[in-house]
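Severity: low
Component: inverse-folding endpoint
Summary: output formatting inconsistent between runs
Steps to reproduce: submit the following structure tokens with default settings.
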């Protein structure tokens, strides 16, 4: 557990710095292109395209397949050196081909994701895409290198490297504002030079982020060499496993295409694609800091226990990780919900836009706790080399997401469209978690569901008065029209104050009732504090 704690702190500290610098990056980007604008949505679609491919590579293949296989390969006489070299070479070749194909198909890809854009908006988004799509190659290498390092228990570089990307982006977007002014919201105001600086900066950041990982390669005890002799890498076995995850993520991308097209109909004066992406960024802040920092080391350990056939220890990993994640994620949900307007103000250009966009964040937050549970449940299936079952419960979620977005687009007015799409996504994710948990419970003949459900319920009860206290503080600060919405910095400060109050009351309530999860959670939290 001490190694889990150290790894969690290393990942968590890096994630916090990464996310905070990412917030600054987005603040500068909003200052350059606006938060609710046609130009902002055009860039959002283009810059999201390589991220979608990255999701296929990282979530759909590496996490599900590569990490467990590398853990197994570590038992080879060479410590897995030959396997990893072959795997890396194969991945690099595949990424290069995928990137070239995507660049050729750039106009089609933009059309697929934003069919309701105006012709001028489509042209601008396509121009952005030509600059952004090379990110696919570097995103893929970054994911491949990072997951290999994680599997070798070198957790830090994968988490800290995005900070360099954020710094490059902040400097580049800042230079854009100094040269051209901002926000540049009108589509017809954009020149080739403006496009090159903004989108080129976004791609340069990913390139530098990937290069940084190479400096840490030797720490994993590996000598990376190009190896085109792919025989013996287990392509047939990996292909069988990856087949299901590939289909699963493709289904997710199809659902995302439906969502993007529905949202493109609101682009311009109402929250749409860029506003939804920024709300999702806020949503992912506690998820990445808490779930990924604590859950990633657990997944490596869980994979080792599953590979050794120690099923009781796997069940223990599941219960401990969900209860630990739940302690933090429930409090985060309450805090972010109460502070939704000042938090949203960070990524908007005024108080009115913050109030308009806050419901999108609130609707996403409904599934924050369920997704933390899903993180553990889904990766347990992966640890047992079962990618088929996750495909089916994810396919169900994708069908519900796509259907919900279509219904939202048909019945909701433009101003409520983004919130409606977020709400249907949360409902679909809750259904997915319920089905996945039942299936894993049956597979392992119990996963301690009663114990961790009771723990989550206890956390939720403690969060209710904590949220009420936080809302009271928000009202004392002036409410939605107070100083917390006057600027992005004020929004961040206001959200931090409200969040700290919620957390303090939450911990106090659990301390009064002597919750057994409190002591280990606080011990983990104290690791983040500087030592004297």
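Observed output (run 2 of 3):
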């Amino acid at each position: 557990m001490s190694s889990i704690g150290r790894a969690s702190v290393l990942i968590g500290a890096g994630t916090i710095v990464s996310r905070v610098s990412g917030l600054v990056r987005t603040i500068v980007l909003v200052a350059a292109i606006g938060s609710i604008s046609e130009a902002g949505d055009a860039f959002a679609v283009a810059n999201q395209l390589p991220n979608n491919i990255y999701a296929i590579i990282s979530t759909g293949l590496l996490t599900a397949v590569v990490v467990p296989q590398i853990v197994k390969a570590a038992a080879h006489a060479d410590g897995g050196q030959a396997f990893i070299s072959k795997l890396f070479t194969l991945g690099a070749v595949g990424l290069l081909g995928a990137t070239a194909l995507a660049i050729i198909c750039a106009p089609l890809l933009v059309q697929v994701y934003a069919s309701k854009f105006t012709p001028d908006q489509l042209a601008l988004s396509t121009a952005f895409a030509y600059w952004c799509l090379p990110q696919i190659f570097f995103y893929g290498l970054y994911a491949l290198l990072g997951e290999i390092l994680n599997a070798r228990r070198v957790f830090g570089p994968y988490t800290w490297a995005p900070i360099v990307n954020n710094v490059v982006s902040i400097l580049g977007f800042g230079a854009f504002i100094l040269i051209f002014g901002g926000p540049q919201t009108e589509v017809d105001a954009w020149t080739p030079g403006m496009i090159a600086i903004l989108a080129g900066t976004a791609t340069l950041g990913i390139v530098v982020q990937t290069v940084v990982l190479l400096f840490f390669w030797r720490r994993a005890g590996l000598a990376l060499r190009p190896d085109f002799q792919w025989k013996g890498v287990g392509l047939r076995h990996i292909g069988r496993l990856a087949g299901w995850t590939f289909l699963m993520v493709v289904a997710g991308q199809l659902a995302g295409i439906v969502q993007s097209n529905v949202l493109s109909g609101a682009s311009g004066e109402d929250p749409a694609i860029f506003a939804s992406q920024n709300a999702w960024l806020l949503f992912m802040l506690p998820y990445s800091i808490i779930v990924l920092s604590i859950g990633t080391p657990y997944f490596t350990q869980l994979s080792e226990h599953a590979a050794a056939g120690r099923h009781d220890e796997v069940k223990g990993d599941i219960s401990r990780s969900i209860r630990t994640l739940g302690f933090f994620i429930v409090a985060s949900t309450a805090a972010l919900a109460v502070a939704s307007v000042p938090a949203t103000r960070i990524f908007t250009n005024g108080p009115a836009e913050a109030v308009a966009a806050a419901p999108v964040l609130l609707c996403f937050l409904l599934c924050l706790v369920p997704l933390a549970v899903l993180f553990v449940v889904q990766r347990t299936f992966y640890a047992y080399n079962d990618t088929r079952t996750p495909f089916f419960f994810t396919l169900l979620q994708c069908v519900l997401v796509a259907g919900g977005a279509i219904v939202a687009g048909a019945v909701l007015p433009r101003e409520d469209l983004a919130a409606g799409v977020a709400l249907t996504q949360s409902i679909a994710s809750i259904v997915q978690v319920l089905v996945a948990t039942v299936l894993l419970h049956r597979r392992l003949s119990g996963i301690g569901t009663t114990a961790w459900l009771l723990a989550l319920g206890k956390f939720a009860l403690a969060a209710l008065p904590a949220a009420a206290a936080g809302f009271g503080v928000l009202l004392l600060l002036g409410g939605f029209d107070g100083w917390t919405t006057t600027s992005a910095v004020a929004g961040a400060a206001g959200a931090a104050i409200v969040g700290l109050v919620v957390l303090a009351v939450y911990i106090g309530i659990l301390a009064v009732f002597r919750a057994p999860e409190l002591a280990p959670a606080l011990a983990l939290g104290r690791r983040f504090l500087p030592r004297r």
